[in-house]
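hi! just following up on the protien thing from before. the input was this:
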Amino acid sequence: MGNSSGRTVSRAVFALLAAALLSIAASSLAQTQTPNLTARQEFLKKLVAAAEERTHHTVRYDPAYIRIPYPGGDVPEDTGVCTDEVIRSYRAAGIDLQKEVHEDMEKNFSAYPRQRKWLGRRPDTNIDHRRVPNLMVFFSRKGESLQVTEDPADYPPGDIVTWDLGGDVPHIGIVVDEKSSEGGRHLIVHNIGQGPKREDVLFAWKITGHYRYYGPGL
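and the predicted 3d structure came back as:
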């Protein structure tokens, strides 16, 4: 009887200790996640503000291949394409997509598309990050690949959206705070040929990708 009682007490003590350890672990995890969530929210605010600021710039649409410095390289500030607005917005928020994409491509080149027209046999810091298909792979690998839906509420500010303009022509833009007067859709900052604009184009073309990327460490 004494041994049985002792085992019962031991099991009870063990159960209490296990519960206490689980509670401590859960509390620690919650404390870790809360600052992380806050940091992510703050980053997206910076990204959206940077994208909005891009609409004040005059940019001539020019897809020409240009050799640029690395890291931190950029084509002339008065030229660029749709990807350059995403790149410049992220850079203003503290993330160099030229560097991040290149480093991932160096380690995982086979994961990225190598279309015949590009003739790419190795990573190229001058152009890789400026190609929509490469950014789609990068965002899906290093960020969050989100569901494509027809509900505008599923596309909050800071999200990245890609489209097929038709004829397999890719496009990319950033969701920002302002909403359309009709439909309640968040507007998009993008450059489709007339420089960076803030427009109601979320569902203007076929959506091919929906992403959220906070940068390394978040």
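The first helix runs from residue 2 to 54.
The helical segments are 2-54, 82-92, 97-107, 132-142.
cheers
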